[in-house]
Amino acid sequence: MQEIYENELTHEADAEESSDSYSKLVWQRFSRSKAAIAGGLMVVMLTVLALFPEFFSAYDFYASNLGDSFIPPSEIRFFDADGAFQFRPFVYKSELVIDPVTYQAKPELDTEHPHYLRFFVRSWEYKLFGIIDTDLHLFGLDSEDVRVHLLGTDRFGRDLWGRICLAGRVSLSLSILAAVIAIIIGSSVGVISGYYGGAIDNVIQRFVEVVMSFPELPLWMALAAVIPKTWSSGQIFLVMAFIFPFLRWAVLAREVRGKVLSLRETDFILAAKEQGASDFRIIFKHLYPNVLSHVIVILTLMIPDIILAEAFLSFLGIGIQEPLTSWGFLMKSAQSLETLGQNTWILTPVIFIVVAVLGLNFLGDGLRDAADPYSNL
């Protein structure tokens, strides 16, 4: 008995050591990819901004001020009007003056009185995570007469930088939730279809083909358009989160099924069957982990795809609506050629969409390679 017990302890120790060595190999391979690290940093940066938009915004992005409508981005300076370098960043007060010849409004700077930026200032109150009352913000000015808008303001005079950070919370959470739902459904259906085969596989694959035959864009627009206007923003968010996975899971199910078909006749699967392992254990203990790297890649590619789809629908006015806001919803202001031509900073949300898409793609490629550290060694 003592010998059997010692053998079991040795086996457990070897398993733990093997798991530790695998984790180290995964991290070493991931850390060697500069693109993956850059993508991870992009995703982390956007996530932090989305989690704490109130902290990073100097002004209440819910409050409208028509007097500040379409103010261009503030110019942060380190050199004053005389060319002297200042260690503290500052801005000049700007006032719009009508040109008597062209009758166009032009900004006129008050270069006599610089207004310095301060960090970790107390300003408008908000609830952190909807629970903690606080008024701490990352930056602000030492004067209440002058306002600093990093990315300008929208037509209602609301700070665009703060609203973009807030919009990231909706765009990222919606895309991640929708992608996770699609991944869970698609991968589970694909593994089950490929493992059992026969009549079960035929029925599942015919249903998958029916789902894949629907045209995505018209169906998205139809499903989004039937949402009642009386629904709350939370209800609209949940419905949108389930609309996007409706068609996305089918493609993943087909891909996973093909991989499982090639794995189910391998020696380790046959050995597990001979030892009396249940179908549940074989599917989720042996088959699913072997397709996990592919699932991770599809997940990281599906999230930016849903971000773009949500931005397109919201841009058309059939997606996210007030009081929620998303990157696509902020782009609705760019539908006017007059606004787009004179106030180009309204297109700033596009930059955040591009950063999110590139970052997730870079991160997905790095995770795909790192999940199989023994290849190409």
Question: Your description of this structure?
Answer:
The chain has 377 residues and is of the alpha+beta class. It has a domain at 31-52 and 164-371: MetI-like (MetI-like fold, Orthogonal Bundle), CATH 1.10.3720. Helices cover 59% and strands 14% of the residues. The chain is built from 14 helices and four strands. It has helices at 2-31, 34-51, 53-56, 160-196, 198-212, 216-225, 233-243, 245-263, 267-274, 279-290, 292-316, 327-330, 337-342, 348-371; strands spanning 77-79, 85-98, 105-128, 132-141. It has a four-stranded antiparallel sheet with strand order 1-2-3-4. Strand 1 (77-79) and strand 2 form a beta hairpin. Helix 4 (160-196) crosses helix 8 (245-263) and helix 4 crosses helix 11. The longest helix is centred in the middle third of the chain and has 37 residues, at 160-196. It is elongated and about 85 Å long. The two termini are 42 Å apart. Residues 1-18 have low confidence and may be disordered.
